[in-house]
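seq as requested:
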Amino acid sequence: MKCTAILLILISLFFLPLVCLAQDYTVGEGDVLDINVYENEDLTTTVRVTANSTIRVPLIGEISVADMTVSQVSGKIETLLADGYLVNPQVDVFIKEHRSKQAIILGQIESPGQYELRGKITFLEFISKAGGLTPDAGSTATIKRIKESDNNSDNNKETLVVDLERLIKKGETSLNLLIQDKDSVYISKAKTYYVSGEVKKPDSYKYEPDLTVIMAITMAGGFSKIAAKEKVRIIRTVDGEKRIFERVNMDAAVLADDVIVVPESLW
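struct tokens:
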């Protein structure tokens, strides 16, 4: 008996959050709802939400469920049935089939593509759903969104920029936006710089703000034994033209796309 009671408690702890999440789900076009009226089986029905966000309920007729959660739909039907039809009606509404409420994520994400949204999902949850960021992910994400109650024209779209550094590294949760239906998310690719010549690991590296020459060389494993440390130069594109900066200071700032060249010492 004791084991059975413990098992029931564990099951309730597992399923209760799922039930609450389902009740918080906002219904929309294409959703299929099971509507059950307690002790009134003749009123029990299955309906699909129309493009106008309406459903048809026995006795009541057509009602709007625009921007309503499952629990709100239950409450509305109960109120309408109580208005001259039933005494103290009890209505349960369940999602039988979720609609195509979707968002797209592209760019530097492990599994780019289109994903179904079920209930409320935050930006970080959406990132996780798509497999997480790639190692080449940059510091910003762009969300293109259709404004509420507007049409699909370009004038009625807005662009939101999420600073991934502030959100992920600094924990600024205000940037953890809710993903909406038809959102298009793009994860930028990180800017890079290059270190070549007499360093231990010549390669391209992910650029970060406030990077200096000595920091970049350290990332590349440091100088080799034959490096000419006083003759480091930077090749940089300025106004579309390549310029070479000779004998740069170790504390000089490095910009994205810079090429740091460490020459060989002749002595």
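The two ends are 86 Å apart (CA to CA).
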